Amino acid sequence: MGKWFNKKLATILLVIAVLVLVSIYILPIAVPLIIALLTAIFLEPFVKFVQTRFKWERKGAVITVFILFLVIASGLVYWIITQLVGQIIQFSKMVPEYTNSLSHMWGEVEAFFLRSTAEMPVEVVNSFETEMIAFAEGIRDWILTFVNYDTVTNLLTGIPSFLVSFIVFLIALFLFMLDLMDLKGMMFNRLKESTAEKVRFMSARLNNVVFGFLKAQFLVSLIIFAVSLIALLFIAPEYAIVMSLVIWVIDFIPILGSIIVLTPWFIYMFIVGDIVQGTQLAILALVLLVIRRTVEPKVMGTQIGLSPLATLIAMFIGLQLIGFLGFFIGPLLVILFTSAREAGIIKMEFKI
């Protein structure tokens, strides 16, 4: 054991342990800063392009790219919100019709129940009534878990926190874009030449991983959006575009994804008596779930250089340890470890 476990390895393991603890306790509250840094890295090629194309100084190029980013992002958000609000207004106009359909269907269920139990013993009828009441109360309680005073209050009280985080993100993004090259230079100035070469190797590897991850998510999201849009054009054409966008955005949530949107939708269709549309939506939810769970590990593994199995294990363990953020950090830590080993920073070649 002493041949391969030495002071250097102990130091490396200690650093890894510290990084893991930081990932668990610090990263979740530093999400706006992390996203700002990743966005700045993502926008850096555009900044360099503007500098080269127009012969501008870095500050002018950064301001230009930052403003263009804000305009494009704001326009996209505005379009999505207006479409969503329009569909909500249209849905609210149809609420009375849906309510009448529910009342009519419930009346038919009661009439069918009375006809079917006319010849049955009173005890059996009472048992059926008890079960039906319990079922209805269960549905009511399930709905109230999503739509209640506490949920609305939490959403409203979370708005100021979100706005603060968003402002911090914008400020941090601009500052990171301005100082990205200086930060990189400061980091390399503190390193020996041999160490700097290893870090450059790791940086290039991580850069490929980040862009590979974004590319993988984009490719999978394109598949999800295309399948959702095509299916909804046949199932519910009046809501196809908006709901496809909603599904596309929500699908980034690990494990649940599009199920959050489609499950209440097809359950509602079953309740109002539209069995055909409810079945179609349920099938769509299953198809999207299968696509996400089968295609994502393979695409991510291809783009970031991990095998599908290693990618799946890293995403799952990260998700279990630190929640949503771990879904992305898990594969990143694995890549960081393998890159450090390939660069010679970590040496753990041993046999049992």
Automatic annotation (TrEMBL):
Keyword annotations of the record: Membrane, Transmembrane, Transmembrane helix
One Pfam family per UniProt: AI-2E_transport
Bilayer topology annotation: Multi-pass membrane protein
Transmembrane segments: 9-27, 62-81, 159-180, 209-235, 241-262, 269-291, 311-338
Cell compartment(s), UniProt: Membrane
Protein name according to UniProt: Sporulation integral membrane protein YtvI
UniProt xrefs under InterPro entries: AI-2E-like, YtvI-like
Predominant location category: membrane
